[in-house]
Transposase (putative) YhgA-like domain-containing protein
Amino acid sequence: MVHHIHDFGYKRLFSNVTIFRQLLETFVHEPWVKELDFNSAETIEHSFISEAYRETESDLIYKLKLNGQDVFIYVLLEFQSSVDRFISVRILNYITSLYVSLIKSGQIKEKLPPVFPIMLYNGDAKWTAPEAVAETIEHHDVLGQYGIGFQYLKIAENEYSAETLLQIQNIVSTLFLAENHYNLEQLEHELLELFEKEDRMAISLFLNWFKMLAVDGRIDSTDYQAFEKIYTNQLEVRQMFTTAISEKDKRLIQEGEAKGKAEGQKEEKINIAKQMKADGITSEVISKYTGLSENEIKNL
């Protein structure tokens, strides 16, 4: 269950367009990435992961515009402790399953849209599996033009040094840093920098990911408390700028924010619970993370 919760935390993070954009713009070195319209980005609420692998991997599918045309980005979140030499075959199967789904939906008129496959790996072992299907097939060259020419892009977190990640300074690089070069002092500094410049919702999701790690015992709870304190302090500093507002206006604003915050938090918890429930996580565990009652979760 710990791995399942960890998978869910990752999927939540990269379902945020700001964080997804950072992944592509920082770690996918292809010229067309600059032409992507991230304002048009939407996630496809469907998974093509085989039943046998749902405990060790998850997937995320984005649809967005590239020069006015639809393009899909398929991200496989790989959490296996061991390296699967034939994972390229499995990813190819997921991509073709996506294509079959699009055809059956009636959305396709003449040609299929391009799908760019990414495998994001955060295991400890060095990733050694071939990225091209052709490398897994014996005597593939004899097939000539009829051979399978599929290849995925590998993003292995443990291949990036702490120095490289510290130079990047965004949410994704800090995530990789926390996973592979955990250093509380460094992370506190990085988080402080992020709070100054990053999207507030993305930062909130990132902090929530640390909370999940603390609950599961993957990091010390005092470390999470230190991160939360930094976040709280930054919010307090920003709120100081509202002192120039008249007391009447300030009171009205605060009342509206309090009401909106309460409603927003409730809605966020419900959305999280729905996604966790869809991923097969038990009501007991969902309740633990969201604070919703098991009866509320049952009725979602």
